[in-house]
Amino acid sequence: MPNTVVQSIDYRSGDSVLIETKNAVEDNHLPVRATKVLVTVPLGVLKADSINFVPKLPRSKLRAMERAGFGALDKFIMYWDDRTMSAFPQSSLAWDNLMDQDWLGLILPPKMMGNFTSFFNSRSYSGMYTLTAWIAGSDARRMDAVDDETILHAHVMPNLQIIFGKEMPEPTAYRMTRWSEEEFSRGSYSYPAVGKSHSDVVQRLGEPVNNELFFAGEHTSSRWYGTTAGAFQSGRAAATSIAIAL
């Protein structure tokens, strides 16, 4: 159901699960009843208690949520049209010489490092002048409060001009992701917290509850946590478990 937000999951009855939802566009509530429910929301949403589980989830699962780390990884995506780059032949030539390098990085003295020193070069795949700057952890969260234009001028362009030359023009279009501020993600990826047994945490996060609530997502994958592959693998495993339980 598009534009529909899950507000609560009630599994008290023992023979079915009641899901209370709200349509964000029409502002109406729609209850849904099911025998099995697969919960695939990101770990950040679970940590934020965005969904009200009735009764509360088992203590072991709640503790696992607390113990698991959930980080931020954002991208500053840039595009230059052909007309812009043709007006700056030296930078265009420098980019041509880097065509076969997927990753462009800078190693600078600490005082010069800045926040964006790794760039994914997708020109060889798309044929277009596109770069994606990566930023993670506390640096990414600090950028949440900075507007895109300031990020470009103060943090990205100085490093690009080191790679491509001083004449490197500003991109035609650009945008920063801010996953920590997204209501339905609240971050980007799970990770092992310092001093915690991550294998035990992952196991608890992925355990079914009462053979009615099943859980999937990258945070439930012991091998591929933090990746799309982990989310896919865990979803297939959970679907198999549900099929067996039906």
What's the quick description here?
The protein is built from nine helices and 13 strands.
Verbal overview:
This protein has nine helices and 13 strands. The protein is α+β, with helices and mostly antiparallel strands and 246 residues long. It folds into two domains: 4-69 and 196-245, FAD/NAD(P)-binding domain (3-Layer(bba) Sandwich), CATH 3.50.50; 73-181, Polyamine Oxidase, Chain A, domain 2 (Alpha-Beta Complex), CATH 3.90.660. α2 packs across α8 (198-206). 25% of the residues are buried. It comes from Minutocellus polymorphus. This is Amine oxidase domain-containing protein. GO terms for molecular function: oxidoreductase activity. Pfam families: Amino_oxidase.
CATH topology of the largest domain: FAD/NAD(P)-binding domain
**Biggest beta-sheet profile:** 5 strands, antiparallel
Structural class, from secondary structure content? alpha+beta
The total tally of domains equals 2
Q: What count of helical segments does DSSP give?
A: 9
What's the helical proportion of residues? Answer: 25-40%
* Mean of pLDDT: 92
Shape descriptor reads elongated
Task: Identify the strand order in the major beta sheet.
Answer: 8-9-10-7-11
CATH architecture of the largest domain: 3-Layer(bba) Sandwich
By CATH's scheme, which homologous superfamily of the largest domain applies? Answer: FAD/NAD(P)-binding domain
Distance between the termini: 23 Å
The count of β-strands is: 13
Strand content: 25-35%
Using the CA coordinates, give the radius of gyration.
22 Å
Low-confidence stretches: none
Mind telling me the CATH class of the largest domain?
Alpha Beta
Protein name: Amine oxidase domain-containing protein
GO molecular function: oxidoreductase activity
